[in-house]
Design goal:
about 900 residues; alpha/beta; 4-stranded mixed β-sheet; 31 helices; elongated; RNA-binding
Length: about 900
RNA sequence: GGGCGGAUAGCUCAGCUGGCAGAGCAUCGGCCUUACAAGCCGGAGGUCACAGGUUCGAGCCCUGUUCCGCCUACCA
């Protein structure tokens, strides 16, 4: 048995380090597929949303991990076989950027190293820094199975990626083509639609004159990007626009370029906007691209993939950057008198979600996934096979899937899964296969010629989309996959509902014929105190690691849990975390108290709970009753993802009930001479504390484990593997609840009188209670617990029974029909009591007025359910009784005052 | 433009299927009462955004309005 005392203050750093290591060394959370496949145990599995290897733990991760951990630890208690898969994602663009920056410091570029050397270099970086975020996950206390850890670029997952690519290609769901895509000049790669973020920017709207070639006038077009005019191929107007009806079909002369381009009509054009004439630049605008296709217009790119004007621009502009070219174009147009207007114009501009530079639509050869068929299945699976919680997100999910466009999956970078496609240098044959031809030592199957692999790699999200089954060993049919797929729930923020969740749904359904998860729980975003998104540039980031260092992991976890109400963002401030550290301290000290009051020999109390419950005192009956209710509350709240309710129920129970009332009431028995009573109360104290530790453990794993490990009579020190506390329905007692409420009312009323009349706390008062009108059993509650009333209300003498009356000069109150008297003569100037009673009477009046109004309202008695009517009438009677008694007591007091005067 | 969410105590937020408006923090008053001053006891503080409607009864359901967030979209 370990030393059954605890240090005075809780030291989170030491405790967390110790138990964290213990869990990992002992592989406490290692999942066992055989327990499911052969043992018949129910599986429960979660795959972690893999953070970027380049990432550092932020509050969003902290919340995400906390909620998943609560679920996993709770499900273990429920007897499930739990697998929580940790891992990271290779974050193609982000990681490549990091290493490129590193190279830059050495004065090198990636091209200086070449593809192979560069990738080696990234792996080196990954080896050195890639574990950072994983170690931070450890500090959160996450009960993941570290033996199951995966990385999107590791061998198994790479195999899965190739398998998926090849199969989709074979099914015609992946194709290659020349299309306009979102292009980031800085990252030098294509991006998917949803990797482009739109941000409002202040810009200008330029109006440019395009003279009609026949000299019959001009069209004025409006544009925010004048430099693109060099690539214009047409001007479009609305077919029903009378202003331009005669111009349709004519040619205009493109200024600065000098060539003639047609005026076309298309209903896409908004007559209201600008001049109603739209210049068409198919190579540099998504919409223009679409128009050009319907009208069979040529595509002329004038900007290259680095953002510089290319050889298709007039020589005067070639080689200029976009912005330099814009300046020159504006200057030249002005000189020619062709610039009709410049106006301020706010519009939204696409930015790269990784580097925030402006996205340039760019025509290039790319690979795409044809998503429509996949999206259809993903849509139909909700809510039948996969439930989105809270359900309000279903709409967002549907909306996106309904409007989805083909997914550009090729990226012009090096770090990632290289596309498994080879082109024959001799005959141009395209080969897509899982095996590397080089490994197979084969050439072109058609002509035997030399094969060259695609340079591009796949979008990181392509591999992330496979995460729920690739991490379980797919495409092999592993035991893990059999036991744990589909996963039980995916816990994530709504910000990657599209990027990731929808795509996992598509891939999971397509390749495993089953949805990847039963539930998707969408949690809040963590924001700062003002409700702003935390970001490094704003400087409003609260660093979870710093908070852990200062307040401990449990405080942080509890705070996040307490604020994780469904469907609402969390506004977090350091003060809240600090506040909940007080709660951790409270728990710690209540455990210290309990341990100080256990048998001296370090063993458990010598009485069973069953025996302790025989003729148990009020405090014991009541707290055991409440403990049973708590088990129900915590269980249902967890099963329904009501995380804030878990926190609230536990907080209230531990602090306001267990500590404030039970412990105080137990002291009498614990310190008393009656050995039987002492042992019984010790047993109850230990039972409640230890079961509470189990209930609290999923939220606060460290402090509960530390306390658990020193509790007397605990055979298994591994709290994480304890079953959920057994139910003892026979201990539920509404009578105990009622008795306790009465007891608390009496103590509370007495305390209020004392404090309100500013009576010295050290001054002992006497107490007289008239129980003539009390509920059955109330007298016994008082008689049996008079010693506790003395102690808690700081009372000296007590006289309680039907018909008792105190002196007129008493502080008075009415509790559930019983009259309370606190004699004040010689204690305090009791004039203040008259005023206090006025206030109390006022409160009663207010309630009475409202209640009488309700009861007398026409139709209430007839229409309301009988039990409600009865309850309301009973309430009215109680209030009327209290008011009458209190008013009479006040009169007595006044007469006493008059006599004195 | 479309969609979603929010408005409840000074602050941050709970309030499940309609039935006495709650908590934490802050605040005020009093306490070093032998687990805890990171604590204990007590008090004060609300026209539940606004206007209608349904109902015996609305913070909750319905309609409209205002003000805030957020997501999404191809008005150049």
């Amino acid at each position: 048995m370990s030393d059954a005392t605890l240090p005075k203050g809780y030291e989170p750093a030491d405790v967390e380090a110790r138990w964290g290591k213990h869990w990992e060394d002992n592989q406490t959370f290692r999942a066992d597929p055989q327990a499911v496949l052969e043992g018949g145990r129910e599986p429960y599995s979660i795959v972690i949303p893999p953070p970027n290897v380049t990432g550092a733990l932020h509050m969003g991760h902290a919340l995400n991990l906390t909620l998943q951990d609560i679920l996993c630890r709770f499900m273990r208690q429920q007897g499930k076989s739990v697998l929580w898969v940790p891992g990271t994602d290779h974050a193609g663009i982000a990681t490549q950027n990091v290493v490129e920056r590193q190279l830059k410091k050495e004065g090198k570029k990636r091209d200086d190293l070449g593809r192979e050397k560069f990738i080696e270099r990234v792996w080196e970086w990954k080896k050195e820094y890639g574990d950072r975020i994983l170690n931070q996950i450890r500090r959160m206390g996450a009960s993941v199975d570290w033996t199951a850890e995966r990385f999107t670029l590791d061998e198994g997952l790479s195999k899965a990626v190739r398998e998926v690519f090849v199969r989709l290609y074979g099914e015609g769901l992946i194709y290659k083509g020349n299309y306009i895509v979102n292009w980031c000049n800085r990252c030098h790669t294509a991006l998917a639609d949803d990797e482009v973020e739109h941000a409002p920017r202040k810009g200008k709207l330029y109006q440019i004159r395009y003279p009609l070639a026949d000299g019959s006038g001009e069209l004025v077009v409006a544009t925010t990007r004048p430099e693109t005019m060099l690539g214009d191929v047409a001007v479009a107007v609305h077919p029903e626009d009378p202003r331009y009806a005669q111009a349709v079909g004519k040619m205009v002369t493109l200024p600065l370029v000098g060539k003639e381009i047609p005026v076309i009509a298309d209903a896409y054009v908004d007559m209201e906007f600008g001049t109603g004439a739209l210049k068409i630049t198919p190579a540099h605008d998504m919409n223009d691209w679409a128009l050009a296709r319907t009208h069979n217009l040529p595509v002329i790119a004038v900007i290259d993939d680095k953002g510089l004007m290319n050889e298709n621009a007039p020589s005067a502009y070639q080689g200029l950057s976009k912005s330099a070219c814009r300046d020159k174009v504006v200057e030249d147009l002005t000189a020619l008198g062709l610039l009709a207007d410049i106006a301020e114009h706010d519009h939204s501009v696409g930015e790269c979600y990784r580097c925030k530079s402006v996205i340039e639509p760019h025509v290039s050869e790319q690979w795409f996934v044809k998503v429509a068929p996949l999206a259809k299945a993903a849509r139909e699976a909700v809510p039948g096979q996969t439930r989105i919680v809270p359900a309000q997100w279903e709409k967002t999910y549907f909306e996106w899937l309904d409007n989805i466009r083909d997914w550009c999956i090729s990226r012009q970078i090096w770090w990632g899964h290289r596309i498994p496609a080879w082109t024959c240098q001799a005959c141009g044959e395209l080969i897509v296969q899982t095996e590397d031809p080089a490994d197979l030592k084969t050439g072109c199957p058609k002509c035997g010629g030399e094969l060259a692999q695609e340079d591009d790699v796949l979008d990181t999200w392509f591999s992330s989309a496979l995460w729920p089954f690739s991490t379980l060993g797919w495409p092999e049919d592993t035991d893990k996959l059999k036991a744990f797929y589909p996963t039980s729930v995916l816990v994530t923020g709504f910000d990657i509902l599209f990027f990731w969740v929808a795509r996992m749904m598509m891939m999971g359904i397509h390749f495993e014929k089953q949805v990847p998860f039963r539930d998707v729980y969408i949690h809040a975003l963590v924001r700062d105190e003002q409700g702003k998104k935390m970001s490094k540039s704003t400087g409003n980031v609260i660093d979870p690691l710093e908070m852990i260092a200062k307040y401990g992991t449990d405080s942080l976890r509890f705070t996040l849990t307490a604020f994780a109400a469904m469907g609402r963002d969390i506004k977090l401030s350091e003060k809240r975390i600090e506040g909940y550290r007080h709660f951790v301290n409270k728990i710690w000290n209540s455990a210290r108290f309990a341990l100080m009051n256990m048998p001296e020999d370090g063993g458990a109390p010598g009485v069973s709970l069953e025996d302790a419950c025989v003729s148990a005192p009020l405090a014991n009956r009541w707290i055991l009753h409440r403990l049973e209710e708590l088990k129900d509350e915590v269980e249902s709240a967890t099963l329904e993802y009501r995380f804030n309710d878990i926190a609230q129920s536990l907080y209230r129970f531990i602090w306001n009930e267990f500590c404030d009332w039970f412990v105080e009431m137990a002291k009498g028995d614990l310190y008393g001479e009656d050995a039987a009573a002492r042992d019984a109360t010790r047993r109850v104290l230990l039972t409640v504390l230890s079961e509470t530790m189990v209930l609290l453990h999923p939220v606060m794993p460290f402090v509960t484990q530390e306390i658990w490990s020193v509790l007397p009579g605990v055979a298994d020190k591994e709290l994480a593997l304890q079953p959920y506390p057994e139910r003892r329905p026979q201990l539920k007692s509404s009578q105990a609840a009622r008795d306790m409420a009465f007891f608390q009312g009496v103590v509370g009323a007495t305390r209020t009188i004392r404090t309100e009349l500013t009576i010295d706390p050290a001054k002992k008062l006497s107490l007289i209670i008239d129980t003539a009108d009390a509920a059955p059993g109330a007298q016994a509650v008082l008689t049996d617990n008079v010693h506790l009333i003395r102690q808690l209300a700081r009372i000296d003498g007590a006289d309680m029974g039907p018909g008792r009356t105190g002196p007129r000069a008493s502080g008075t109150a009415v509790v559930e029909g019983s009259r309370i008297f606190v004699p004040l003569k010689g204690v305090v100037d009791f004039g203040a009591e008259v005023a206090r009673l006025d206030k109390e009477l006022g409160k009663l009046d207010k309630q009475l007025t409202a209640l009488r109004g309700k009861l007398s309202a026409p139709g209430f008695a007839n229409n309301a359910p009988a039990d409600i009517v009865a309850a309301e009438n009973e309430k009215l009677a109680g209030l009327e009784d209290a008011k009458a008694k209190l008013a009479a007591l006040q009169e007595r007091l006044k007469s006493a005052l008059d006599e004195e005067a």
